[in-house]
Amino acid sequence: MSFAVEFDRVARHFGQVRAVDDVSLQIAEGSFFAMLGPSGSGKTTCLRLISGFERPTAGQVRIFGDRADTLPPNRRPVNTVFQDYALFPHLSVRDNVAYGLMVRGQNKASRRDAAENMLTLVKLDGYGDRKPAQLSGGQRQRVALARALVNKPKVLLLDEPLGALDLKLREAMQDELKALQKSLGITFVFVTHDQGEALSMADTVAVFNDGKIVQLGTPEDIYQRPRTRFVADFVGSANVLPPEFCSSLDLARSWASLRAEAISLTAPGRGQVDGTLTGTRYLGAVNRLSVRVGKTELSADIPAHAPVPAPGATVGLTWDARALHRMEEG
Amino acid sequence: MATHRLTNPLSDMFWRRPRVLLALLLAPPLLWLGVVYIGSLAALLLQSFFSIDEFSGLINYEFTLKTYGELLRPANYDIVLRTTLMAAAVTVASAVIAFPIAFYAARYAKGRMKAFFYLAVMLPLWSSYLVKVYAWKLILAKEGILTWAVDGIGASAALNALLSLPVIGGNSLSVSYIGTFLVFLYVWLPYMILPLQASLERVPANLLEASDDLGASRGQTLRHVILPLAMPGMIAGSIFTFSLTLGDYIIPQIVGSSRNFIGQAVYAHQGTAGNIPLAAAFAVVPIVIMGVYLWMAKRKGAFDAL
Amino acid sequence: MHSDRASLLLKSAAFAGLLFLHLPILLIFVYAFTTEDRTYQWPPPGLTLKWFAVTWNRPDVWEAMALSVRVASISTAIALVLGTLCAAAVSRAKFFGREAVSLLVILPIALPGIITGISLRSAFNIGGIPFSTLTIILGHATFCIVVVYNNAVARFRRISGSMLEASSDLGANGFQTFWHVVLPNIGTALLAGGMLAFALSFDEVIVTTFTAGQQATLPIWMLEELVRPRQRPVTNVVAMIVVLVTFLPILGAYYLTRGGTETAGGSK
Fold first, then answer.
1. Which residues lie below 8 Å from residue B71, measured CB to CB, with a gap of 6+?
2. In this predicted structure, what is the pLDDT of residue B66?
3. Which residues from B are below 8 Å from C126, CB to CB?
4. Looking at the structure, do residues A178 and A291 belong to the same domain, yes or no?
5. Is residue B16 part of a domain?
6. Same domain, A176 and A253
7. B127 shares contact with chain A (CB less than 8 Å)
8. B255 contacts in C (CB within 8 Å)?
9. A282 is in which domain, residue-wise?
10. Is the Transmembrane helix keyword given for this protein (chain C) (predicted)?
11. Among the three residues A232, A257, A277, which one is the final residue of a domain in this structure?
12. pLDDT tens-digit series, residues C180-201
């Protein structure tokens, strides 16, 4: 199997800061790959190592088996959709899209046709003569996408592609990007700090922290079976349970995660543990209860229509044994 | 796959070694400024440590502080003091006149009015320095428009009283310090308005509203809110008015009494008198004064308004 | 409630200030037409156009004008190249001594002109360089760099870094990026900076008196007339023409950079 992108022990240091710290990684051809992590975790630097805006301090970057880290950005078979779109303000939408073809010397008529076709693909036909400043945020995003795709890249890189859009548009774009990736069959690599975005779009997710990949897997793996406390904390709202908690349940002593929505309320003494209700937060679809069990504070989501006990009441908590996921510390 | 046929080895090299590109960009301007300008300043500084042989009139190329000592002679010391006082007076007066213009333009002028104010300050700023001085020669001439206007409103007695004042007065406006002051004020005023306006633009309108809301009168708001916030702009403007007045030698030569300013002393010593070391020492005076001034201004944060 | 309208006092002080700035320049225009040729008499005894014809036929005025245009053009060209290079370097990268470079560029204009002038003069003396058109240009280009630099730096800041990255990402090499992306985006700023540099050089007198030999630029010609008036009516006409000639580049630069932060007066 050939890999679209390979990192072989890649590091990128900025002075004392190890932005990317000895990362090895393979991105399968045709996959929709997400780099997820908080800001400063090294995910954006990894993307820039693929596009060529950063050079590795150590290690090798390969694109479809060819060594890429010695090539400048203009000679790599990848294209980028920038976070701020980076459209050229002095060019029309059509000339923006045709830019990559122009600098490669393609003739005017054929690049014009290619640009128009690409604009149709992103549902912007008829907008070719406008200037980027005359477009809405969502439209600019589509132009940026068309401008990258018209070059037929082997890998498309997207840097926080939906970050600047409002919620409704973001959800619509998620579906569109997914459909586009499927129909074009190009490898998409995108960077995001939004776990919902990563889980819903990608088929493989790499979770970054402190310049390293802390977990690599399918969205389901990441969500259901976090490998470390960091992943459990960062991806969704899992309860992170200390080793003492597991011991008290007569389980092997280890850290564990338990999703808030996996817990349900029952009468005191009827569940796995009893606790004291310390607070309630209304979240729309559910009420999130805070329950103190010994030294541990647990969150439990119960349907909004279910009755909520009074604060200070003792409640029983119950869950499916399979929902409690044991993990390594770290 | 797209073919990358337009590759360029030089461009690739700049990607691999961005510092090389940086060095190539910086080298020409730095060489020019470093050699032509800094070299010249150094030459000037060097000359001020030489002295002139009083008998032969030739420059004695030996390191000495004698020339700086000459600055302390009463005649020379007076020149320094006179110039500094004039610079201070011009600076204060231009701040007073500039403030209403800058404040109105920053706070009340909108749209076209704002553009009008901007151009109305920019055009005099950029129009010819000599023409502006010439205009004042016309205005201040005995037979000129100012005398005519003063006569017209029957205020000649007041003008004569003003001119009969000791030191600042004189035979007519065009040969008095008052005249010199007016021309300096006129020529440098726009340099005060622009930075002042820039700093006033940055005072958020809601601060003034907050001050009102807290019960301050207009005067109190001006004194306690606007003026302190406008201070960096005012200091930035004063750097221009002060420095430009210190170094000017043409205005006092055209309009004013026969007593010298620093600039005239520099010009005279390097020219007809041929005393280059003393001219250089005189030229160092404004550099030192401005150095101290800039240092104090920096501590007040004036450079953000430039 | 703070009134959104200025008090009458503020308004009149502001407009009185503007009048103070403009009346003297307007006066020049009237004097160009006066029939009086020996004094600065006001009001003018009569109006005439004949001094325009007299000025037109004066070879010394034409020579001075030609020299000024030549000096300003060459100085502007040098300043455009050096100022743009410097602005590109400063806005492109953080490097050790970046602040010092900005200071170095501003210094020739921040220090009083007489210091720049006498410094250059002593350097030319020491270096044995004869005073000529070349030395005038050396001086002018030195203080014109800052005008171009200020305009270019402000515009470079508006070109986001990702725009240059986008260009290379799309396959352009460094030279293509410069030609297709950088230049179109800084073009008007450079044009404006060039116009202002031209105006600055065209008008400069203090540094020029130190760096010129026997050559008279237009301001030097005017200065001589100011110190020893011999040709009052011709001087009046030349003054008016100089005002008009410098207004054009200023207005041009203003319209080219509207909406930006360039052309702030501190650059002069």
1. B77, B80, B281, B282, B285
2. 84
3. 43
4. no
5. no
6. no
7. no
8. none
9. 241-326
10. yes
11. A232
12. 999 998 988 898 889 889 988 9
CA atoms C125, C127, C130, C136: torsion sign: negative
Contact C60/A at CB under 8 A: no
Q: Do residues A281 and A210 share a domain?
A: no
- ipTM, two decimals, is 0.82
User: Which chains are adjacent to chain A, needing at least 3 Cβ pairs under 8 Å?
Assistant: B, C
Distance, in Å, from the CA atom of A245 to the CA atom of A229, rounded to the nearest integer, reads 15
Residues in C touching A82 (Cβ below 8 Å): 162, 165-166
Domain count for chain B: 1
Rounded-to-integer distance, Cα C170 and Cα A93, Å:
15
Q: B190 CA to chain A: closest CA distance, Å?
A: 34
Q: Do A103 and C160 touch (CB under 8 A)?
A: no
Q: Do A156 and A269 belong together in one domain?
A: no
Euclidean distance between CA atoms B126 and B8, whole angstroms: 44
B2 lies within 8 A of chain A by CB = yes
Residue with tokens 């592609």: A161
Distance from CA of B5 to the nearest CA of A (A): 7
Q: Tokens 């007339």 label which residue?
A: C225
Contact C114 B126 (CB under 8 A): no
- Which CATH number do you get for residue B173? 1.10.3720.10
Task: Please say whether the beta carbons of B170 and B257 come within 8 A.
Answer: yes
Q: Is residue B4 part of a domain?
A: no
Q: Give the neighbor-by-neighbor strand order of the sheet with A66-67.
A: A17-28, A3-14, A58-63, A66-67
Both A202 and A306 in a single domain?
A: no
**What percentage of chain A exceeds 90 in pLDDT?**
66
Q: Does B15 touch chain A (CB under 8 A)?
A: yes
Task: Give yes or no: residues A204 and A254 share one domain.
Answer: no
Instruction: Mutate one of B4, B11, B17 to test the A interface: name it (highest A CB count within 10 A).
Output: B4
B233-290 pLDDT per residue, tens: 888 888 889 888 988 889 998 888 878 898 888 888 887 767 888 888 888 888 888 8
Query: For chain A, how many structural domains are there in total?
Result: 2
Mean pLDDT calculated for residue range C34-62: 84
DSSP label at B118?
H
* Residue B63, burial from CB neighbour count under 10 angstroms (0-12, 13-18, 19+): exposed
Mean pLDDT of A225-245: 86
Domain count, chain C: 1
Q: Which two tokens stand for residue B114?
A: 């704002």
Q: Choosing among C122, C146, C224, which should be mutated to test the B contact, i.e. which has the most B CBs within 10 A?
A: C122
Write out the residue range of the structural domain in which residue B234 sits.
66-305
C167 Cβ under 8 Å from any chain A Cβ:
yes
Classified as helix, coil or strand, A134 is helix
% of chain C surpassing 90 pLDDT? 26
Q: Chain C contacts of B254, Cβ < 8 Å?
A: 226-227
Residue B35 resides in a domain: no
Question: Measured between CA atoms, how close is A146 to chain C, in angstroms?
Answer: 12
Q: Residue A260: helix, strand or coil by DSSP?
A: helix
Q: Please indicate, yes or no, whether residues A143 and A265 belong to a single structural domain of this protein.
A: no
**Which residue, chain included where needed, has tokens 């302390």?**
B72
B30 in a domain, yes or no? no
What are the phi and psi torsion angles at A87 (to 5°)?
A: -75, 150
Q: Is residue C25 part of a domain?
A: no
Encode pLDDT of B45-82 as tens digits. Answer: 888 888 887 777 777 777 888 888 888 888 888 999 99
Question: pLDDT digits over B275-297, tens only?
Answer: 888 888 888 888 888 888 878 87
What range does the domain containing C166 cover?
A: 59-257
**Contact assessment for residue C223 and residue C153, using Cβ atoms and an 8 Å cutoff:** no
Reported as type and span, the H/E element at residue A296 is: strand A296-303
Is C128 a domain residue? yes
Tokens 């030319």 belong to: C124
